[in-house]
Amino acid sequence: MVINLPKPNSQFAMKTPTTILAIVPFLLLYVSMADSDPIQDTLLQCLSNLSQPLSPPISSVTYFPNDSSYTPVLQSYIRNLRFSTPKTPKPSFIVTPTHVSHIQASILCSKIHTLQVRIRSGGHDYDGLSYISDVPFIIIDMFNLQSITVNIEDESAWVESGATLGEVYYRIAEQSKVHGYPAGVCPTVGVGGHLSGDWQGTMAE
Ligand SMILES: Cc1cc2nc3c(=O)[nH]c(=O)nc-3n(C[C@H](O)[C@H](O)[C@H](O)COP(=O)(O)OP(=O)(O)OC[C@H]3O[C@@H](n4cnc5c(N)ncnc54)[C@H](O)[C@@H]3O)c2cc1C
């Protein structure tokens, strides 16, 4: 398909490139100054320095309040909507680790910068303990770490913290009709919070 481009006004055509070239450096400088937050840069540097060099870059799974994905990531596992209001305290940043060293780096950098750590797996804590605090804090959200490896031979399973109970039951049922796991009845409860505190269910009682 041929597209007819309009002929440029000769006066405009002569002056515009020079003007644009003169303005562009200032625009770039303005944009980079507007985007640069020294505290954020320091935190990101700390996270990068303390995660393993060969791990996926932690910057790609770190969300600060001025990132467009910050609010969707924060809200995705808030199960009690009472804690999803503009007045609800918000984390300084959220890390969604894809590598174990991201967790280590997040904990170390939080300690260095005096930020409390909140860990969230399924987000089912109805007091919001996994995603709110009354002091400056960060969230380590485990939802990317959700692999489940079932070994029916030795009747064991290796489950990452961000998996849900329903996913665990499903993966076991895929391999065996006589095996199960004695945990809670709600399929969206996270393994991390459940196994570290609760653990009531029909098979467990
Ligand atoms: C609808 C519903 C149904 C439920 N059904 C049952 C049931 O049948 N049986 C039962 O026993 N309980 C049940 N519960 C309670 C549930 O097991 C607990 O609330 C559990 O702590 C939720 O875990 P989570 O990972 O989803 O929550 P989260 O809010 O992510 O975490 C809960 C707590 O554990 C901490 N935590 C999470 N991940 C980690 C981690 N990797 N390392 C260290 N700490 C971590 C969090 O910081 C927080 O303090 C139910 C809850 C709800 C809301």
From TrEMBL:
Cofactor requirement: FAD
Protein keywords: Disulfide bond, FAD, Flavoprotein, Glycoprotein, Signal
Domain named FAD-binding PCMH-type: residues: 87-205
Stored InterPro entries: FAD-bd_PCMH, FAD-bd_PCMH-like_sf, FAD-bd_PCMH_sub1, FAD-bd_PCMH_sub2, Oxid_FAD_bind_N
GO biological process, one term: cannabinoid biosynthetic process
Molecular-function GO terms, alphabetical: FAD binding
Record family assignment: Belongs to the oxygen-dependent FAD-linked oxidoreductase family.
Protein name: FAD-binding PCMH-type domain-containing protein
Organism: Rubus argutus (Southern blackberry)
